[in-house]
């Protein structure tokens, strides 16, 4: 996608509204956004029915609204291999976008 942020890479480690919406805006402005999810996916993927929105194989409007135009990767960050992959992605990113609590980031060595 072309835009003023074309050529920027954003690595997003987030869930729920504000940070994922920010990631979507980065993507709409042309940045490559890679959203990191746990192996079972972002828990927000399952919230549609609680808001009277369907979840099908082809559509998940609740999740898609905040995560359009992104690339997704699932990593098990509790393993050395998952953390190695995360650090590799971080080394290639211009922006690290997260709403993860500081204590959790510290526990992962992401200070």
Would you write up a description of this structure?
The protein has 111 residues and is an alpha/beta fold. The protein has one domain: Crotonobetainyl-coa:carnitine coa-transferase, domain 1 (Rossmann fold, 3-Layer(aba) Sandwich). It is 33% helix and 17% strand. It has four helices and four strands. It has helices at residues 18-28, 61-67, 80-92, 102-107, and strands spanning 9-13, 32-37, 71-74, 95-98. Strands 3-2-1-4 form a four-stranded parallel sheet, with helices on both faces. α1 (18-28) links the parallel β1 (9-13) and β2. The chain is globular, with a radius of gyration of 14 Å. It starts with 8 loop residues before the first strand and ends with a helix. The mean pLDDT is 95.
Descriptive key words:
single chain, 111 residues, alpha/beta, Rossmann fold, four-stranded parallel sheet, 4 helices, 17% strand
Give the SSE map.
Blueprint (H helix, E strand, L loop, with lengths): L8 E5 L4 H11 L3 E6 L23 H7 L3 E4 L5 H13 L2 E4 L3 H6 L4
Parallel strand pairs: 1-2, 1-4, 2-3
Share of helix among residues? 25-40%
- In CATH, the architecture is 3-Layer(aba) Sandwich
The unreliable regions are none
Shape: globular
Quantity of strands, as a count: 4
* Intertermini distance: 31 Å
CATH superfamily: Crotonobetainyl-coa:carnitine coa-transferase, domain 1
Question: Helical segment tally?
Answer: 4
Would you tell me the overall average pLDDT? 95
CATH topology: Rossmann fold
Strand order within the widest beta sheet: 3-2-1-4
SSE string: EHEHEHEH
Largest sheet: 4 strands, parallel
Strand content: 15-25%
Report the structural category.
alpha/beta
CATH class: Alpha Beta
How many whole angstroms does the radius of gyration measure?
14 Å
């Amino acid at each position: 996608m072309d835009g003023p942020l074309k050529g920027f890479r954003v690595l997003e480690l987030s869930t729920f509204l504000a940070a994922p919406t920010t990631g979507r805006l980065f993507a709409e402005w042309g940045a490559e956004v890679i959203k990191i999810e746990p192996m079972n996916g972002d828990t927000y993927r399952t919230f549609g029915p609680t808001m009277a929105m369907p979840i099908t194989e082809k559509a998940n409007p609740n999740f898609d609204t905040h995560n359009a135009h992104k690339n997704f990767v699932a990593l098990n960050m509790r393993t050395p291999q998952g953390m190695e992959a995360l650090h590799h992605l971080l080394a290639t990113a211009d922006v690290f976008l997260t709403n993860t609590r500081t204590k959790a980031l510290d526990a992962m060595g992401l200070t």
